[in-house]
Amino acid sequence: MSDRQQTSAKVLALIEPFNKKGVTVTEATRFAQDLEWDSLTVLDFVANVEDEFDVLISMNMQAEIETVGQLVDALERLVAARGS
Amino acid sequence: MTDLFSKFDPIIQQREALLETGLTDPFNLVMEKVESPTVAICNGRRTILLGTYNYMGMTFDPDVIAAGKQALDDFGSGTTGSRVLNGTYAGHRAVEEALKDFYAMDHAMVFSTGYQANLGVISTIAGKEDYIVLDIDSHASIYDGCALGNAQIVPFRHNDLEALEKRLKRVPEGAGKLVVLEGVYSMLGDIAPLKEMVAISKANGAMVLVDEAHSMGFIGENGRGVAEAQGVIDDVDFIIGTFSKSVGTVGGFAVSNHPKFEILRLVCRPYVFTASLPPSVVATAATSIRKLMHSADKRAHLWENSRRLHAGLKQLGFQLGTDEPQSAIISVIMPDLETGAAMWEALLNEGLYVNLARPPATPAGMTLLRCSLCALHSSEQVGEILGMFTAAGRATGCIS
Which of B3, B73, B103, B329: disulfide with B255, CB 3.0–4.6 Å? Predict the structure, then answer.
């Protein structure tokens, strides 16, 4: 698996405990519309993602992230920036 | 043409559905006459007020009223200008002196509302490259201050020490850090573990701002708030407060020992680009603040009221926001908005006003009946209040 695939797999695994509606999740899945997460669920999920990747995802950044794929892309950038 | 108001359709429908059931509109109450800090006439009926922020009952204090009348006579009804132009009168300086004495701090800056104090200070001091780390349950004025500035906003789970520390450690090296906390969180009436949180913030090189709006006057040895009560006020960089709660009028302020604090008067837009408070308002505020310094008896009675109401409601079987009374706010958790609105109306019919609070103001989508006590509620009134809760609770099926 490439780095991006690994990131994607980790994100999908982190989504599962919050996927109460049992939606089939792909990179095109939208957090607000498809998973119907409220603000508290988002907070808990983001905290788990931050812990897993040891990064900070500010609310400013979250506002730009609508889909699972966009989150994976953002994480790739954040992890690369941290390593540099 | 797209109607810009169509985005409000869901809330319009929810409101209409609620009112169709015949309920009184909880967000449209008019007080026809106000008799005292604890009693008003609503819909022609004498009503005990248990949903104001008049914690110390200063609104009808004779000295406070006299000071306001004198200022109206001496300085007129308004300043018609900004603090930095023609809007600073002797009274504005006097109330800032009163705040410096009250908090024992070097600087005090008065804004036209508490909302503007948070909006102004937060948006001005945290800039584009800086990080604001804040409790997720922060007041709207704090979030709006964050939105008005350009800083990176990082929320953490309510009162969670580990979550705060983790986030602070992940802020990029060299970035400015501001931690924003509240002394009392006004929805559930719970307090923050400021002792630990301020220590964590300082250990990680952050400045700390604490909003003490709901603690002034009765928490801490000198009524300076939760930071004083927990012994960390000297490590707090900025305290934000308001005149619209314990002080009993309207206005907001920031106090600080930061040596460069005064420059905010020139760079803080919500301070500069608005009219200053009317002379009568700053005169009542200054008088009230100085009286609050010597209000130990009232403070003790307020705590007694809070403990008694908390214990009484708990015994009746209501679910409360905190296990123990932590402030002058006792929050009753309702199962849903419909039951909350029905209970609110039943209490009003009994002759009791409380606040109905619902999302987005409340955490976790809760509907709350928020009770806030006053130092001037008599022991008899607290007894009456418990009787009203019993009757209304049984009538609506909230308790058995």
Answer: B103
